[in-house]
Amino acid sequence: MPVTVAPDLQAIVDRIAAEMAGREERGKVADYIPGLARVDPKHFGIAVATHDGRMFAAGDADAAFSIQSVSKVFALTIALGKVGDALWKRVGREPSGNAFNSIVQLEAEQGIPRNPFINAGAIVVSDVVLAGHAPKEAIGEILRFVRDLAGDDGIVIDDEVAQGEADTGFRNAALANYMRSFGNIHHPVDQVLGVYFHQCALAMSCRQLARAGRFLMHEGQHPDTGFNIVSPMRARRINALMMLCGHYDGSGEFAFRVGIPGKSGVGGGILCVVPGIASIAVWSPGLNERGNSTLGSLALERLAAATGWSVFNQREPG
Ligand code: GLU
């Protein structure tokens, strides 16, 4: 169905939030660290930032949550800014078809991770962001970047979550060491992981996250300043990676049901980008069997159906 009429977005997000509030089946909250395990599964938030500068929000859209792997989008953007397309010599661009923290594929592929959104790929990205910096500076750069994108200095890193990641991150340490043995990690593993764990621990609300994703619907331009964060081509490519690799092993299912580029995290957040139209953040901490937010995915399915925003729809030009 081509989209020709502007939908009543506030009514749509209100209706979605009301439906989600009544849902019993919410999935399971990530429990590998206390900072995530204690989050109440009843939360649901949604925020939609539109291309014309408006914001539509409902539910717990202002509650901060751990964005976890959604941060991989921002770290990738920084790394591309630093080394450009040379990044693709060290990280692939294909869906993995394996668990997000799988080590098996790395052996077969000589320490080159399949894509920047599985853990191994994100750890290489952290290594790139770390270059020329002390770890604290690299972490500060990521935080400043996200604050600038969102236009909100209130965004923080949750130190307890970062510590929890470090205390339990044995598999990430294995991945990093393994890649170092292939020469694909250039800095000390503990420093690289320090950067990675802190970016995962960014705490943001749906409203802040939707604002931070706006450059990806604006062909790479910061909507508040007009400066290019990335080129239009790079924004398109980041969106393509989100579509193909953004939901772990459930990326095909998400494209099938929702049809919008998105990146999810185990904190229950999902950032979605409808190019030229909207940047969307949803949050509900209960996860499905693939590790993606159960209600967040359903809410996006409802939103895509109500708006016709699947990128596989044909649109009228202009
Ligand atoms: N900090 C988590 C890990 O590296 C990220 C999980 C995620 O959101 O995918 O295990």
Could you list some keywords that capture this structure?
single chain; 318 residues; alpha+beta; Beta-lactamase; 2 domains; five-stranded antiparallel sheet; three-stranded antiparallel sheet; 14 helices; 45% helix; binds glutamic acid; hydrolase; Glutaminase
What order do the helices and strands come in, and which of them pair?
Layout: H1 9-21, E1 28-29, H2 34-37, E2 45-50, E3 55-59, E4 65-66, H3 71-83, H4 104-108, H5 119-130, H6 135-150, E5 156-157, H7 159-168, H8 170-181, H9 189-200, E6 202-204, H10 206-212, H11 214-217, H12 232-245, H13 251-257, E7 262-264, E8 269-274, E9 278-283, E10 286-287, H14 294-307
Antiparallel strand pairs: 1-10, 2-3, 2-9, 4-6, 5-6, 7-8, 8-9
Helix pairs in contact: 1-14, 3-5, 5-8, 5-9, 6-9, 6-10, 7-9, 8-9
The site of glutamic acid has 10 residues, from loops.
